[in-house]
Protein 1
Amino acid sequence: MKDISVGILGTGKYVPDNRLTNEQLEKMVETNNDWIVTMTGIKERRIVGEGQATSDLAYEASLRAMAAAGVTADQIDLIIVATITPDMFFPSTACLLQEKLGAKRAAAYDLSAACSGFIYGVASATGFIKMGMYKHVLVVGAESLSRITDYSDRNTCILFGDGAGAVVLGEVPEGRGFRSFELGADGSGGELLRICGGGSRLPSSEQTVADRRHFIEMNGREVFKFAVRIMGGAAEEALAKAGLSKENIDLLIPHQANIRIIQSALDRLNLTNDKCMINIDKYGNMSAASIPVALAEAVEEGRVKEGDCLVFVGFGGGLTWGASTLIW
Ligand code: UT7
């Protein structure tokens, strides 16, 4: 079988217009702008409008990625949507997106790996293309986290925002494209970050709603410790698998969860801030959408050149983590 080099043919992003600023949050919970900026790096986030849902964000980002890739809807073979905020339990958000795009030939499924979802998605897509099963795969990270956020819980509500990022994956010239993936999970940490209500173990009821079990529950301090440990390590593993070293990195694109977590990864990898894409100040934590939105923005800003070595790294609920290296 021919060894196919798989890379990103086009990127796109979409964030809703509504902004939620730290000043607005000060009026909702006992918090203040200085604490939020110092402890997280976040200044504002985007929030879906009334009637808007995850597939709507995914649709806009996908149109842009497909235009950038020069690929039409009927050329898409598979759609993978990484999300923890699907429009509904089922049908999948990927199927809803397939219909909106008119990508009639495409198979479609959702992928649940929380904030690591986009990296899990591109790893899966790369496998399908290398196998010769599909030519063009649309991978989307899309979230409407404001819909599952408890705006009376100051531990979580300051963190999350809504948005979507998309990429079209396909064959690229030899020497370019994805070089390695490092995926991991540790289910023993599942209770650190989760939503319990509404699933088959704790079906929705008046009680689950009264107990606010339909919102994100998080042990922030423990997740923070895990993130600091895993981010640098996962990136190093992915580099080693590709035969690359820290010095080769031109741009790190990390999950945007907390500026202090990003900073710890930069320290571990001996990178200066100019080698890292940071946009957490504008969008907060968009879970699976944060890496593809940061990538699309880096491309828009001209920060990615042909031949550059990019490293993606993320962590999230599950617990899960993922890292990947790519020659652009
Ligand atoms: O994609 C993965 C999703 N999750 C994450 O990435 C979360 C990772 N964790 C974090 O980013 C951090 O844990 C937080 C930013 C959420 C919190 O930072 P922390 O350093 O872990 O703070 P803490 O929860 O230990 O709280 C420190 C203090 C506490 O006060 P006392 O007990 O020291 O008096 C909190 O009550 O800060 C207080 N606090 C706040 N104060 C103002 C907690 N939240 C707030 C707030 N505003 N929003």
Protein 2
Amino acid sequence: MSDAILTLEHVDVGFATDDGTVSAVSDVSLSVASGEIFGLVGESGCGKTTLAMATMGLLPASATVSGSVRFQGRELVGLAPEDLRRLRGDRISMVFQDPMTSLDPAFSIGEQIAETITAHRNVQRGQARDRALALLADVGIPEPERRYGDAPHRLSGGMRQRVVIATALANEPALMLADEPTTALDVTIQSQILDLLRDLRQRLRTTIVLITHDLGVIAQLCDRVGVMYAGQLVEIATVAEIFRAPRHPYTQALLAALPTQHQEPGSLRVIPGRVPNLIDPPPGCRFASRCPYVMDECTIVPPLAHESADHLIACWLSEATRAAAHPAGAATGGAA
Ligand code: SF4
């Protein structure tokens, strides 16, 4: 992708535990274009948050990250902690699910935004205050002058999430990673926050990577989506394409499990089986134990390959995957 702002290549993340190393992310490669809203979707524990934390350099010391994470052409894996700190909150920012864990209860919301500005910019406190007030207005906080001195607990959940987004935008980042930013909110507030993110992308051209388990949120906001399962990236497509013609059996199962408006009680579809143990994951495709189409070659990891310009899939059912694995045309039979 020529105008990519973020490029991940062969990213692996492992966590050392007493029982062995958890392979939380395995060989993930993707690109996000400047100005795009890219969704990362999958069940809890599939590695999407770990991938975002690896991008931000926020993983604990027990984690091992390998591969390449390039932001605006600059390699972040192995970057000195001080250089990473300078990038965070400035060129890259992150919004977490629970605003109360991001906001310091001991300081007012306005002070916290102003502090983010003065930490990265050589500005006077008065200028930082003015900018914080403008940001509060930007994210739809009514009467910013009056609310500036409020402690976080005086705001509703939706308002607190707006403050967290204002803080993330304080230094006009080129890239914002938003991890389940609406999960803790009711549907009305969720819709307002999604409108806000859409509006901010429009006005500021901020690139957004949205992490969620909710395909409805993906449908409302994103341009493209990457589907993760058990630490592997299994499909990437435009949002329209993923809903129109999902190709990977896991994506198909996820969409089939979505409740419909006229769902009969007790008829909700589930994906049979369990996510594999990532301390000792199966060789090859990690969806194999739950996949109705599993075959012999699924013990080999299927490479993510282009079925079309905008649609990539990692599954041995795909001719594109087979061609990528056997470029000389030596594909073994059985593709559907
Ligand atoms: Fe199923 Fe094999 Fe495709 Fe994995 S690679 S989704 S096990 S058919």
